[in-house]
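re: that complex we talked abt at group meeting.

here r the seqs, copy pasted straight from the sheet so there may be weird spacing, ignore it
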Amino acid sequence: MNANKPRSATWLGALPFVFLLVGWWLLPRLVQYPAYMLPPIGDVVAFARESVMDGSLLRNVLASVARLAAGFAIGIALALPLGLAIALNRHVADTFRPVLSFLQAIAGIAWVPLTIIWFGIGNGSVIFVIANTIFFASLYNVVTGVQSIPTSLYRAVRSHGGHGWSLLVNLILPGALVQLLLGIRTSMAYGWRALVAAEMIAGSSGLGFMTMEAVQWQRTDTIILGMIVIGLIWMLMDRTVFTEIERRTVGRWGLLQR
Amino acid sequence: MSRALALPLGLSQPRTSRRFGRALKGFAGVAVLLLAWQLSVPIVGLGPYFYPAPTDVIAAFADLIRKGILPVYFADSMERYLAGLFIGALLGIAGGVLIGLNRTVALTLSPLLKFLFAIVEVAWIPIFVVWFGYGVKTIVLALVYVVFFPVLYNTLLGVRTAPQVLVNALRSLGANRLQVLRYAILPAALPGIITGLRVGAGFAFRGLVFAEIVAAKTGIGYLIFEGTQTQQTARTIVGMIVMGLTWLAIDQLYLRPLERGTVQRWGLTVDAEQRT
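got the structure back, here u go
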């Protein structure tokens, strides 16, 4: 939606939420069902307030976000050099392509059972899975980024005497980075899912762990709070970080072909 | 060096000799990896539970085939995947057309849909487990959820690209709403639908494995999980390999040709990943 949307649009958009909340409030008053299936809305609000007050919610959020950041940094740091090597050298590309496309097909959550054996339950397993996921998502972006640099730009840099290192720093690296940034939302969409999923199976803290652990105790209020927070954090990251990155990169390098 | 750059890999049509060389190098890459893995086993020396050798994996594969476990698990996984994909795509297309054609509906539902899409399917699995227990229902529902949104958004974008001139022309020739939908709007939306399906299929495949790890007693995801639980790590790796090869087959043999036949043919490419 664009910026000059009428105010009525906001009200229209709020309608389904109001409808849902009222329905949730009314449901236990109209129908009989076991409370663990869907706790009354008041319970979830009370639990939310409690877990904000004692800091446990914030601790879990921070634990998740810190893992995401760590996995993200590792994944990108590994993807950038290998991606450049693949994009710049045909022999490297030919040799690695089958292995990498296979590993890409199993990237992410399927590694969790193995990483539990290797690193145990906790940070090691979860960060491995995120880094693994981000690595393969970014690798593709780095390669296409370099390949989508127009030939005329190479000729321009070369005709001004640029070669080797200066070609890499002034043309190839920026080209790869732009695509990397442009693809960041997709990479993170996979990374975020991998984070939540890995925490559910192999975590000892974090939003995914909090949500999954609650199943055993039938604490549906915790599950629902976890879901809402997971949704809100993704929206927040999307609105602030990714939209901003997109705006700046597309704004600055908008001439690059998409 | 610059020559390799100027040629966008994969888009060029290599001659046979070049293609052969490429296949040979690719094969060498796989072979070297497998050899390195096999040779590193005695060096690492931590036993087949921690680090099984390729030969252990082959033995586990033969065992799983002989006992008939792998074919059953594979069929179960594919059944769930296809059911989720089909229902999710159907709902996504219906929702996309409905929302795309009506501005008020779009304004009303779009914040809610954005919020629901932000609650990734992975986060729904615990509550599905509480509601429906461990089993097929939970898994298929999670897949429907993950396919629904990309298909919805891309259908929506496709519907909006339907040329108004065409719609007007059909109307003035006396076409009813259904005919306008059939002859102007759906054809325009088709590339979007396919793009959405492709994105959704990718997320759903990982979703399937995760859902099976958590909530199944059969399937490839369960095999991957069960292997380490029962100290048969080689089985886990068999599961991962089957998973990878299955996805490559789905992607290369089905999704890519489908996309080539529709999206690239009728242009109108929408960068799906950016929107979803």
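couple things i noticed - Residues 54-275 of chain B form a domain with the MetI-like fold fold (CATH 1.10.3720.10). Residues 177-215 of chain B form the longest helix (39 residues).
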